[in-house]
Design a protein that fits this description.
Blueprint lengths: L1 H7 L8 H7 L2 E5 L4 E3 L1 H4 L2 E7 L2 E6 L5 E7 L6 H9 L6 E4 L3 E7 H10 L1 H27 L2 H11 L7 E3 L2 H8 L3 H13 L3 E4 L2 E4 L2 H9 L1
Antiparallel strand pairs: 1-7, 2-6, 3-7, 4-5, 4-6, 8-10, 9-10
Helix pairs in contact: 5-6, 7-10, 8-9
Organism: Brevibacillus choshinensis
Protein name: Crp/Fnr family transcriptional regulator
InterPro entries: cNMP-bd_dom, cNMP-bd_dom_sf, Env_Response_Regulators, HTH_CRP, RmlC-like_jellyroll, WH-like_DNA-bd_sf, WH_DNA-bd_sf
C-alpha cells in the first residue's frame, strides 16, 4: 500500500506512524457505478483516489443531477476539504466511473494534517485552486459551446486511437454535460448515422476522431 500511496500522494510521507495509526486508514476497492462517498460518509471520513476515475455530482435547483467534477488519482475533492473545514454537510455524491481503489481516513485526522504539515497543506490547496480553474473553464465552455460540440469533446477526452471505446450511458453523459438524456440520445443518433461512432449497450466507440475534433473546433 505504502509504495503506491506515496507515489500518488508524496506529501503523505511526512505523516508520522502514530498519526497514520490514529487515522485508521482503509483501502477499499470499488466497481464502476458504485457509490463511494456521500453525505453520511463525509461526517466521519475523507477519501483519496488511488486508481480509477470518479464523478462528483449534486442536485441543481431544479432537482436534476449534474456532474460538477471528475477526479483522477492524486486529485483532492475541494468540496470534501472545504466542507470539513467549515463544518458544513457535504452536498454531493461521489460515484465510480471505472473500477479502482480509494484510501479512507478519519476526517478529524486529515483536517489536523492540513494544519500541521505544510507539504500537505500546499498540495491540498494547490489542488483545490487547480480544480476551481478547471471548473471555471468548464462553465465557460457550457456558455460558449453548443451541446453537440461539448458531447464530441467529452467522447474524445475519454477515448484514444488505441482505446476508442468508453463504457458509459446516455444518462451518464447527460448528467456530465448538464443536459437531458433525450437530447443527448438524439445527438448520438445523428453521430451514429454519419458513421462517426458506434453504439451498443453501455458502450460508445469512436470511429471518426477527426470528424468529432472538427465538431469541437467549430
Amino acid at each position: 500500500m505504502a509504495k503506491s500511496l506515496f507515489a500518488i500522494f508524496p506529501s503523505f510521507r511526512d505523516i508520522s506512524d502514530e498519526e497514520w495509526e490514529s487515522a485508521k486508514p482503509q483501502i477499499r476497492e470499488f466497481q464502476a457505478k458504485a457509490t463511494l462517498f456521500r453525505r453520511d460518509d463525509a461526517a466521519s471520513y475523507c477519501m483519496f483516489l488511488l486508481s480509477g476515475t470518479v464523478l462528483i455530482s449534486s442536485l441543481d435547483a431544479g432537482g436534476r443531477e449534474a456532474v460538477s467534477n471528475r477526479l483522477r488519482p492524486g486529485d483532492v475533492c475541494a468540496m470534501m476539504v472545504l466542507c470539513g473545514l467549515s463544518e458544513r454537510e457535504y452536498p454531493g455524491t461521489i460515484t465510480a466511473e471505472t473500477e479502482g481503489e480509494a484510501l479512507f481516513v478519519e476526517k478529524r485526522s486529515f483536517l489536523r494534517w492540513i494544519h500541521e504539515y505544510p507539504s500537505i497543506r500546499q498540495v491540498v490547496f494547490g489542488n483545490i485552486l487547480d480544480g476551481l480553474i478547471q471548473l471555471g473553464s468548464q462553465l465557460s465552455d457550457k456558455l460558449s459551446q453548443p451541446l453537440d460540440s461539448r458531447l464530441a469533446g467529452a467522447l474524445l477526452k475519454r477515448t484514444s486511437e488505441q482505446l476508442p471505446s468508453v463504457r458509459t450511458t446516455h444518462q451518464q453523459l447527460a448528467v456530465e454535460l448538464g443536459s437531458a438524456r433525450e437530447v443527448v440520445s438524439r445527438i448520438l443518433g445523428r453521430m451514429k448515422q454519419r458513421g462517426w461512432i458506434a453504439t451498443e449497450r453501455g458502450i460508445i466507440t469512436v470511429l471518426q476522431r477527426k470528424a468529432l475534433a472538427e465538431l469541437v473546433g467549430d
